[in-house]
Amino acid sequence: MPCVLCGQTSLSTISTVDAKSHGALNVAICGGCGLVQQDPMPSKTELRHFYAHTYRTDYKKTYTPKAKHIFRAGMAAIERVNFLQSHGVHGGKLLDVGAGGGEFVYISKTRGYDSKGIEPNIGYSEFARNQYGVEIKTGELCETRETYDIITMFHVLEHMPNFESIRMAWSMLNEGGSLFIEVPNIETNDASPHNIYFKAHLFYFNRATLSACASKYFDPLVIEARSNLRILFKRKGRQSHITLPTQDTVSSLALRLRQKGWFEYLIAGGGMYKLFSKLNQRVRESRLKNKSHLEILNSLLYLDAEQASTYPSASSDASLRPARG
Predict the structure, then answer these.
(1) For the purposes of burial, counting CB atoms within 10 Å of the CB of 200, is it exposed (0-12), middle (13-18) or buried (19 or more)?
(2) CA 40, 44, 46, 48 torsion: positive or negative?
(3) Which CATH architecture has domain 42-320?
(4) How far is residue 280 CA from its own chain's centroid?
(5) Which segments of the chain are extended strands (E)?
(6) For 97-143, how does the pLDDT look when each residue is reduced to its tens digit (9 = 90+)?
(7) Is the previous residue joined to 40 through a cis bond, with omega within 30 degrees of 0?
């Protein structure tokens, strides 16, 4: 199979096992551009059915969000809004692609954005409309016809079979508009070595490959690489040529992936402390039983506003960051 990004056929297998099901899953790295991808790719029909009906139940064990999912999504949504605002994106017409249960749409709308969402999963999109009263359409990005000032894609791009969504985002954004993408960071040291490659993830990015995927249509303004990789892009006035990673960058990524292992994860990545952080998270989430879904989000908004008024830097504090799944 040729690489989805650069078209070369120099793909080298780096994993053959699905971390969730332990079934067969071939994942390869492209020797031409460094993009890590499934080889071969599932068909569009298979993907459409998977995300519309089974993805959420396979990975979240539920057809609609539980209280703990809302709590985690709410914390992540607040941090993402704070990220946007800290980099000068304070409002405007916003579309959240792959909106899930609608927590980011609700929180960003509460914080002054004119927010809408689109979500392919029937149960989650219905949940968002019914619980939060937000405008979330059940469907895919190609079905959207409006224009926006901001488009967000949080843990979405790695699930799509190509990068057509980036071109569509460019065509839907107003002049000077912003595209905010967040994906798992393939170079992170805090992911367990046996918990990296999944059937649901078609691609795995680092800052070079994600920037390359958007380079025809967007310029990167801010790059933040931690457990997750975030890039805030600015829309180009017109389409340009793709800018691929250098061969030195590709070689460095291949070496980095070979170096990932248990020692690094446990020591440098803090894996030995994950049990304690998860226990602390479960204690916090156990207090949610008597709260409605809306009350959970509003309490998080109240806490964030209170912290921001008391400690000006608290909006980016780690206490509001959900643990990596």
Answers:
(1) middle
(2) positive
(3) 3-Layer(aba) Sandwich (3.40)
(4) 24
(5) 11-17, 24-30, 36-38, 93-97, 114-119, 136-138, 148-154, 173-184, 203-204, 218-225, 228-235
(6) 999 999 999 999 999 999 999 998 888 999 999 999 999 999 999 99
(7) yes
Q: Which of 65, 57, 140 is nearest to 102 (CA)?
A: 65
Say whether 234 sits in a helix, a strand or coil.
strand
> What does the alpha-carbon distance between residue 172 and residue 95 come to, in Å, rounded to a whole number?
10
Task: For residue 225, list its beta bridge partners.
Answer: 229
> Between 283 and 146, whose confidence is greater?
146
In one-letter notation, the amino acid at residue 300 is L
Q: CA nearest 202: which of 14, 13, 35?
A: 35
- Residue 232 near residue 224 (C-beta atoms within 8 A): no
Nearest Cα to 100, choosing from 135, 133, 136?
A: 136
Answer whether 257's CB lies under 8 Å from 239's CB. Answer: no
Category of 293 on φ-ψ map: left (φ > 0), alpha (ψ -120 to 50) or beta: alpha
Residue type, 272: M
Put residue 100 in one of left, alpha, beta given phi > 0 → left and psi -120 to 50 → alpha: left
Coil, strand or helix: which one is 165?
helix
Reading the block at residue 8, the tokens are 């070369």
Cα separation, 105 vs 99, whole angstroms = 7
Would you tell me the crossing angle of helices 122-132 and 103-110 to the nearest 10 degrees?
A: 30
Spell out the domain ranges in the chain.
42-320
